[in-house]
Design a protein that fits this description.
It is a single chain. The protein is an alpha+beta fold. Strand 4 and strand 5 form a beta hairpin. It is 22% helix and 28% strand. It contains ten helices and 23 strands. The longest helix is centred in the middle third of the chain and has 18 residues. The protein starts with a strand and ends in an 11-residue tail after the last strand. It has two domains: 229 residues, Rossmann fold (3-Layer(aba) Sandwich), CATH 3.40.50; 146 residues, OB fold (Dihydrolipoamide Acetyltransferase, E2P) (Beta Barrel), CATH 2.40.50.
Length: 446
């Protein structure tokens, strides 16, 4: 049996009333593999622990198969959790660790058949008589997964189970987890900060920022149609190029987006998406270009919908199968503060005691400030805020382009670039996507 999980306006606060999860609503279908993705401290593990019953829900409601589950004890939720640190009993063998929850659930039953079947499924039959200290990190994680699988739960809850493993083993176990969960058909909620794990494992991905759900959708959707600049920057390798732009839309001329020393000329006739940019006339926007949206080619090779830029080579990253080229185009970069540690958060006022207003007013003000934090800032440190000792300058260049290793480039070379405007993202000053727009515009009569 698998389980449907629904969260309705769920919130959780710890010390000083700071909400680590803020009014989160999410529906997880039976048998679905959902990934909670976000940077450290965004509340994703707290959401998982509230589903498991290890954390109380301060506000909102949890439904399990349509039944109210806020007050249901963890033992009655029929869920199995896999932790980041394995959480194996050091004095028990692998066999005893896997069979321990079975002995708790049914003290008189023999757990051996289910333990052996689980071990065969995971390929760890030869590890059953070893203690955790005699196992490698990958073997311990397989035993921890076996302990969860042997219970035949209605849902798996996995809290960054692969983060303590080396890259090669992590990729191998990622494939095993994907195969096992599909074979078992059990609802799985998987927490990670690694977007490559999220994209390869999840049926859907839910992106969190500061305890607030930013977007939920298939991996293809959150990559190709990010709802805001935070999602666009968090999903994708290499990270999307974010540039400050200014929309110029004269009535008697071509529409352009100025990037500083250069500009993007939008081809005519304007597409519907580009026509709707006219309302941004004279406003500063954030332009997003993924590395595959730009190619190195002469202007004569431009295809319909491609416009020309010029870049100065500042840095080359050889990846074997490809090269990442960092260009200086004279543009003004923008960054997402949460992704630029140890950069200090700009605009954060010094903490001070307030004596005016009621307690409720102060709480409302604090909650509003937390939810309305800046999404993007210019790519330069605030002169009023001293940079920490660990601050390092960003990699040179404002535009990263993916290309094949057979193209010969060198530092300082000036190169023509073609930008495919069909893959152009434009975000407003608050970081919300304004181009491309939703596929269907609302009817004025609705």
């Amino acid at each position: 049996m698998t389980r449907a999980i629904s969260l309705h306006d769920v919130s959780k606060a710890y010390a000083r009333g700071i909400r680590v999860v803020d009014r989160l609503s999410l529906d997880i279908a039976p048998g679905e593999f959902l990934v909670l993705l976000g940077p450290s401290g965004c509340g994703k593990s707290t959401v998982l622990r509230m589903i498991a019953g290890l954390e109380d829900i301060d506000e909102g409601r949890l439904f399990l198969d349509g039944e109210y589950g806020n007050d249901l004890p963890p033992s009655d939720r029929d869920m199995a959790m896999v932790f980041q640190n394995f959480a194996l009993y050091p004095s028990m063998t692998s066999r005893d660790n896997i069979g321990f929850p079975l002995r708790i659930e049914a003290p008189g039953a023999d757990p051996a058949p289910r333990v052996d079947a689980t071990a065969r499924m995971l390929g760890i039959e030869d590890l059953l008589d070893r203690f955790p200290a005699q196992l490698s990190g990958g073997e311990r994680q397989r035993v921890a997964m076996g302990r969860a699988i042997a219970r035949h739960p209605s849902a798996f809850l996995m809290d960054e189970p692969l983060s303590n493993l080396d890259a090669k083993l992590r990729n191998h176990l990622r494939a095993e987890i994907s195969q096992l969960t599909r074979e078992l058909g059990v609802t799985t909620v998987y927490v990670t900060h690694d977007q490559s794990e999220a994209m390869s494992l999840g049926d859907r991905v839910a992106v969190l920022r500061g305890g607030v759900l930013q977007q939920v959708g298939t991996p293809r959707t959150v990559y190709s149609l990010p709802s805001n600049v935070f999602v666009a920057a968090f999903i994708g390798t290499p990270r999307i190029n974010l540039l400050r732009g200014l929309v110029r839309a004269p009535l008697d001329g071509a529409m352009t987006i100025s990037l500083g020393k250069q500009f993007l000329r939008l081809p005519e006739p304007l597409s519907l998406d580009h026509q709707l940019l006219r309302v941004q006339q004279g406003r500063e926007v954030i332009v997003g270009l993924r590395s595959e949206a730009v190619r190195i080619a002469k202007p004569a090779a431009a295809r319909p919908g491609e416009v020309v830029l010029t870049g100065l080579v500042e840095h080359l990253e050889f990846q074997g199968h490809e090269v990442l080229v960092h260009f200086d185009t004279g543009s003004r970069p923008a960054v997402v503060p949460e992704l630029e540690a140890p950069r200090p958060r700009p605009g954060r006022p010094a903490r001070r005691r307030r004596r005016d207003g009621t307690v409720l007013d102060r709480l409302r003000e604090k909650a509003g400030a937390l939810r309305a934090g800046p999404v993007v800032t210019p790519d330069r440190p605030d002169p009023a805020v001293p940079a920490p000792a660990s601050f390092e300058p960003r990699v040179p260049g404002d535009l990263v382009v993916r290309t094949t290793p057979d193209i010969r480039l060198r530092y300082g070379m000036q190169v023509p670039l073609l930008v495919d405007l069909a893959h152009l993202f434009v975000f407003d000053q608050n970081g919300e996507r304004i181009c491309p727009n939703p596929a269907r515009l609302p009817d004025l009569e609705e």
